[in-house]
Design goal:
Elements: H1 2-16, H2 24-28, E1 73-74, E2 93-101, H3 113-122, E3 124-132, H4 136-145, E4 152-156, H5 164-171, H6 176-179, H7 188-191, H8 195-201, E5 211-214, E6 220-225, H9 226-231, H10 240-250, H11 268-274, E7 281-284, E8 287-290, H12 295-309, H13 322-330, E9 336-340, H14 341-352, E10 358-360, E11 373-374, E12 379-385, H15 390-403, H16 410-417, E13 424-426, E14 432-434, E15 458-459, H17 464-477, E16 481-482, H18 492-514, H19 522-548
Parallel strand pairs: 1-15, 2-3, 2-4, 11-16
Antiparallel strand pairs: 4-12, 5-12, 6-9, 6-10, 7-8, 13-14
Helix pairs in contact: 1-4, 11-12, 12-18, 18-19
Length: about 550
């Protein structure tokens, strides 16, 4: 085994430095035995039953949810909280974890009252390695290459790691016996995670390896400075041409109407669906159609190239981190930002500090196109465990179960708002309002919520009008939702080479929209993507889809 381990470290360090990812799978699975162990697709396997769903009791909402996916909305904080977990999960054990962050590096637990309080409630000593979004791929390559994994590993935020499924199967714990079917009822808050989240995360070789962090149906959203947009004639659902005029007029004097980070790439997927493109993959009638080869995707490129020519995008949008884009949106330099819907609403409301009215952009309409909205796969990321004894796995699951305590519980309040009097106080209506310390010591900078979390609800402390606006927005966009038909399916090709193939698309899209390339370049980019694995992936997804029925 030493020589295999050495080659894995060497290769993955080259990946972190920008080397080829295509060779990674064979060494990532070097610790497995037999060719069967390397298979990660579900086709031809016995599929483990999905975890049973048992709804946890939650307070009655002020704004009703719908079966179509509109979330429950709360304009007031619950008067009485319940205790969701009877006993502390641990007895002083140390647990090492790694996860993404969109915040700033926290002070250690010994100097961080929030971190210390959650550790105390969990009965364990959580040692975080928090990795900024911009550094996540490189850091995870190094971690995977290392000999000793942390106990808990979260892969989230849309990042595609080379041969992730092969790595998970070879080196992470199979959780099937603990989670499948009724077994999950031992962890009632995990049983409250809806089925679509488990299905979105999917199985690996027919087995359950991870726990999803639930997300509602809206995926990426464009948050807007509604005050500034209205001043320049914005109307929800206006035509694409009129929207172009609004953002052009709103830009100038060192302000830019459209903000996007290097991760969201000009919000191109959102705009592509508004032009009528599929959501990544559409699988129908024995055929898988990707979004990238459609005329609608090309129309989106042409539209965003023109917007970039109008100088409505932040000039360095293709190289600016998510954290910096948020700061620029909060301070008014950017009049909008593309970001994940569920995890960005509350931080945005806190970040702007009432300087303007916050809202979410309603899709513009494109003549002759069906307006689609990017439906989430149902999860932010997956949380995996290093292989360990059954008792150790049960401890880690109890920790995640505590973190998944539902809205209206004492545990949820601590994880989401910190310690009353230290991190938050209550306003006249009883809403927990973060103070200056709470804006630093919180679950963004110490990202417990990216290890596991409760199913999300619509609630913005101290801002019932924003809750109502977003609830109304969800009612408008929910009929437009377009699912990604590949969610939860495994393509061996995408598993092995998805990061490299994704980089081809990312580089091509970024280059064209930024003006470094030409619109006519897209055909060759797409052809290269198809030839290097995109076409094969389409065939594999069809087979996976048929096997999952």
């Amino acid at each position: 085994m030493p020589s295999s381990s050495l080659s894995r470290r060497t290769l993955l360090r080259s990946i972190a430095a920008g080397g080829a990812a295509i060779a990674a799978p064979s060494v990532l699975t070097a610790c497995s035995t037999g060719s069967g162990d390397r298979k990660v697709s579900n086709s031809g396997t016995k599929l483990a039953p999905w975890p049973a769903f048992v709804a946890a009791p939650v307070p009655k909402p002020d704004l009703a949810p719908t079966t179509a996916g509109v979330q429950a909305g709360y304009t007031r904080y619950p008067d009485k909280l319940v205790k969701a977990v009877a006993e502390k999960p641990g007895k002083g054990e140390k647990i090492k974890v790694i996860t993404i962050t969109y915040g700033t590096p926290p002070k250690p637990a010994s100097q961080n009252a929030y971190w210390a309080a959650v550790n105390e409630a969990l009965g364990v000593d959580i040692e975080f390695t928090v990795v900024p979004d911009a550094d996540f791929d490189a850091k995870m390559a190094t971690v995977i290459a290392g000999g000793d994994l942390p106990d808990i590993i979260n892969v989230g935020g849309g990042h595609v790691l080379p041969s992730k499924e092969q790595f998970v199967r070879a080196r992470c714990a199979d959780l099937t016996e603990f989670l499948s079917g009724d077994a999950i009822k031992e962890y009632p808050n995990l049983a409250n995670i809806p089925g679509y989240s488990w299905q979105g995360l999917g199985r690996i070789a027919g087995r359950l390896y991870g726990v999803p962090i639930e997300r509602p149906k809206p995926n990426e959203a464009i948050f807007i400075n509604r005050t500034a947009f209205d001043a320049h004639g914005y109307k929800p659902g206006m035509s694409a041409e009129d929207f172009a005029e609004v953002v052009k007029e709103a830009s100038g004097a060192r302000k830019f109407a459209l903000g996007s980070s290097m991760s969201t790439i000009y919000g191109h997927k959102t705009h592509a669906l508004w032009h009528g493109a599929p959501n990544e993959w559409e699988i129908k009638g024995g055929k898988a159609t990707d979004m990238y080869g459609t005329e609608q995707f090309k129309a989106m490129l042409e539209y965003l190239v023109a917007r970039n020519g109008d100088k409505v995008f932040y000039p360095s949008a293709s190289s600016t981190s998510t954290v910096d884009i948020k700061t620029l949106f909060y301070n008014g330099t950017l009049l909008s930002m593309s970001d994940g819907f569920a995890g960005s609403l509350l931080p945005a409301q806190q970040g702007i500090k009432g300087a303007y009215e916050l809202d979410v952009l309603t899709p513009y309409t494109v003549s002759g196109a069906t307006t689609n909205y990017q439906q989430n796969t149902g999860f932010f990321g997956g949380t995996y465990f290093k292989k360990a004894s059954k008792d150790r796995i049960r401890l880690l699951l109890r920790v995640l179960d505590w973190l998944a305590s539902p809205f209206g519980s004492e545990e949820y309040q601590l994880m989401h708002y910190g310690v009353e009097g230290t991190h938050f106080t209550r306003d006249a209506s009883g809403s927990p309002i973060l103070n200056s310390l709470g804006l630093v010591e919180n679950n963004i900078n110490v990202p417990f919520k990216y290890l596991c979390d409760a199913p999300t609800v619509l609630y913005v402390p101290g801002d019932p009008e924003l809750t109502k606006r977003v609830h109304a927005w969800e009612q408008k966009v929910m009929p437009m939702m377009k699912p990604n038909d590949s969610a939860g399916l495994i393509s061996e090709t995408l598993s092995k080479h998805g990061a490299t193939l994704g980089q081809l698309l990312k580089d091509g899209t970024t280059g064209i929209i930024s003006g470094r390339g030409k619109l006519s370049d897209w055909d060759s980019v797409y052809k290269k993507w198809r030839n290097q694995g995109g076409a094969k992936a389409a065939d594999e997804l069809v087979k996976e889809s048929e096997a999952a029925r």
